[in-house]
Amino acid sequence: MSIFATKSMERIKAEAAATGAHSLKRVLGPFNLLTLGIGAIIGTGIFVLTGQAAAAYAGPAIVLSMILAGVASALAGLCYSEFAATVPIAGSAYTYGYATLGEFVAWIIGWDLILEYALGASTVAVGWSGYVVSFLHDFGIQFPALLSAAPGTKVLLADGTVVTAVFNLPAVLIAAAVTILLVIGIKESANVNSVIVVVKVAVVVLVIVVGAAFVVTANWHPFIPPNQGEFGKYGLTGVMRGAGVIFFAYIGFDAVSTAAQEAKDPSKDMPIGILGSLTVCMLLYVLVSGVMVGLVPYSQLGVAAPMAVAIDAAKAHAGTSVLAPVIDIMPFLVKLGAIAGLSSVMVVMMMGQPRIFYSMAKDGLLPAWARKVHPRFRTPHVTTIVTGVAVGTAAGFTPIRILGELVSIGTLMAFVIVSVGIIFLRYQRPELERPFRTPWVPVLPALSALVSLSLMYSLPNDTWLRLIVWMAIGLILYFSYGFRHSVIRHPELAQNEAVQP
Question: Quick one: pLDDT band at residue 500, thresholds 50, 70, 90?
């Protein structure tokens, strides 16, 4: 059969309905899915990248960049919601691609999703490390600089000396801790995530409410700084470049779809988790970015902790205000919220990646060990551990900038394929029951794909080069293993696939 052979919807639904010792456990309700989405979205983007994008690309118009990136995510979110409700099985965009565009495209998207989930978790782990080291410093605990960043990173010490780091130990430790949590169980992981989400949303709301009282409106002018003569350096192209960079802040909502096979009622609850979390986060993002560029001139936000800079500015404006005592403790609360927020992002990202591997292994595209489920915890423990090792390794040795750009382009590519897949499925299988329907097909999915492609175009050239290299490695693996072991193209392997543990 062709490498573009599709997997029938009937087969996918039969796999989703399967029960037994090697199936995943359906324990997640709508609140769990909503907090999983919020937990995945609010993280490095809002606590780190917002200020940097404002300073380098968009100025105060970072608010428009937030809206543009949010709209792009919402368009893709509508497409994901239809797929997740119609195809309630682990695998997310990989499974959707298999059902509509064929095995080869499914492999491409499955390989591409490693950039989003595994490297996304690595990116967040590096950010988590930075905040934890700073948090410990506030309490007089000096973490060894040699073990606090990627190899070759220059770390400035308090006495003015510079140390070259060799390894990011905190990033590796949080990857190990999250891996253990995810092996123990999906319900336990979701409950921990829900508690953390409450903490970090409360911190973001506090920054918005208190910061709004001390905004200097002059900092909002000019709202769109004039272009500096090059694409992406302020002006309208700067707003677009800012959206492409800040898009990282919205990444994660689609991770909810990887838990479809563990949702109690996926046809109803998956759209709530995906679209609900996007709506909440977009509102918070627009408000907090507007407050940040209102508290300080945007040029001062191009630092590692821009929210802390904004809080310091609010503190300077507070004087004897009744809010002064609250502002005094806000730097502590912001760091605590960032640590909690980044932790929950890692939980959701590292939850999604093993389930992609699990689905690919069930289809024969990866070895059988990748589809094993723990007999007690009913989690894909082998791929969870493999993911944890990969995340810890990347986080320990790779700079955050490179990781972040790869995550953005990988996610946008997934959005393009999912959006196109909705159009294909509507025309291929119009009779399918769709508990949630993406409106205005094919116009809205086509617009979603176009917007995502535009944001991909705005990313740096070296990011595209890394994507091409990554995809070339994936093609080698597919034709050396997946092509020869595919269950859908080699029906004689179906029986073995069904009985292997």
Answer: very low
DSSP secondary structure string for all residues of 188-213: HHHHHHHHHHHHHHHHHHHHHHHHHT
- Does 97 or 385 have the greater pLDDT score? 385
Domains of the chain by residue range: 9-499
Query: What is the C-alpha separation between 261 and 13, in angstroms, rounded?
Result: 10
- Residue 270 token pair: 């998956």
Q: How many Å apart are CA 171 and CA 250, to the nearest integer?
A: 22
Q: What is the average pLDDT across 243-270?
A: 81
Q: Which of 48, 16, 45 is nearest to 306 (CA)?
A: 48
Pairing of strands 154-156, 162-164: antiparallel
**For residues 209 and 201, what is the distance between their CA atoms, to the nearest angstrom?**
12
Reported pTM: 0.80
Which distant-in-sequence residues (6+ apart) come within 8 Å of 441 by Cβ? 422, 423, 426
pLDDT digits (tens, 9 = 90+) for 2-15: 888 888 878 887 77
DSSP character for 218? Answer: G
CA 222-223-224 angle, to 5 degrees, is: 90
134 neighbors 342 (Cβ within 8 angstroms): no
Instruction: Residue 38: name the closest of 262, 266, 263, 204 by CA.
Output: 204
Tell me, what amino acid is at 170? P
**Residues across the chain:** 501
- What residue ranges in 138-188 does DSSP mark as E strands? 154-156, 162-164
Domain 9-499 sits in CATH at 1.20.1740.10
Q: Measure the CA–CA gap between 80 and 253, rounded to whole angstroms.
A: 9
Residue type, 235: G
Is there a contact between 60 and 291 (Cβ–Cβ < 8 Å)? no
The answer to whether residues 254 and 274 touch, using CB atoms and an 8 Å cutoff, is yes
Half-sphere exposure of 499 (CA within 13 A, CB side): 4
- In this structure, which amino acid lies at residue 205? V
| C-alpha span between 264 and 73 (Å, rounded) | 25
pLDDT of 393 = 92
Task: Indicate the Cα dihedral angle 47, 411, 110, 264, nearest 10°.
Answer: 60
Beta bridge partners of 168: 148
Q: Which residues does 206 contact at the CB level (< 8 Å), separation at least 6?
A: 326, 330, 333
Mean pLDDT value of segment 134-161: 81
